[in-house]
Amino acid sequence: xxxxxxxxxxxxxxxxxxxxxxxxxxxxxxxxxxxxxxxxxxxxxxxxxxxxxxxxxxxxxxxxxxxxxxxxxxxxxxxxxxxxxxxxxxxxxxxxxxxxxxxxxxxxxxxxxxxxxxxxxxxxxxxxxxxxxxxxxxxxxxxxxxxxxxxxxxxxxxxxxxxxxxxxxxxxxxxxxxxxxxxxxxxxxxxxxxxxxxxxxxxxxxxxxxxxxxxxxxxxxxxxxxxxxxxxxxxxxxxxxxxxxxxxxxxxxxxxxxxxxxxxxxxxxxxxxxxxxxxxxxxxxxxxxxxxxxxxxxxxxxxxxxxxxxxxxxxxxxxxxxx
Length: 323
Known about the structure:
This protein is an alpha/beta fold. It is 33% helix and 20% strand. The protein has a 9-stranded mixed β-sheet with strand order 1-2-3-5-4-6-7-8-9, with helices on both faces. The mean pLDDT is 97.
């Protein structure tokens, strides 16, 4: 594979053509108000993992529609005082998996909250959260579930869950709510950007090779899934192109980025055909907070920086969470 997208100098100035809906803020305020009408009811149950250096809790909290969402909460063993917290969102198709796979942030001395992904968790890591909300006919996957209308779209539920996950993490007595960071890769990166635009008081935002950005370009520049699910849907529903584009605009990471107020560390890979670099740069260039940086991996696909990016995040987040 070779670099296929815009040259790097053009990426650094690329702007999305996505048109922000006039009622974007009203839509999300109404959505979150409806979710908060339900008690959060965050519950943390200790689990035995056989790990000596961390303590793990099985989490359940109420997300969109008051529906239960699972997660893991991990802290260094013996923690007695509130810690900074890293809230993590997961990539497409995966769930929270097994607790021993989430050790990095607790090993660094932070609290770590991992949100399960409703309806997902059968591709590369198991999940435990159902999505009880139905939708009209959709192409297999999640990108077109309810895409006929922003109020029925799958990602309205998932982004709402993510905001509530931050609230659940902040509710634990071992968390210093004033030192909250959010992170995730691919779909998790897209969710991270949504939270950055919807939640105030974050101290750091770290989206890796983020998905769900610059939809107008993403659905036309790559034929790789998951973006291709939208094209496959529109191959059948030929008359719905504008309707679908209008829905997607409410969920575009570009518009959430424009509302972000926390420092950010992005990453992208120039051979990434799953989340093309132009779509990532569209969100990065729109990101409102000026304290921002982006790591560029010239010869990588969707794996991006992998452990190198984790090391960069570890240095960067430590500076901000312990500062």
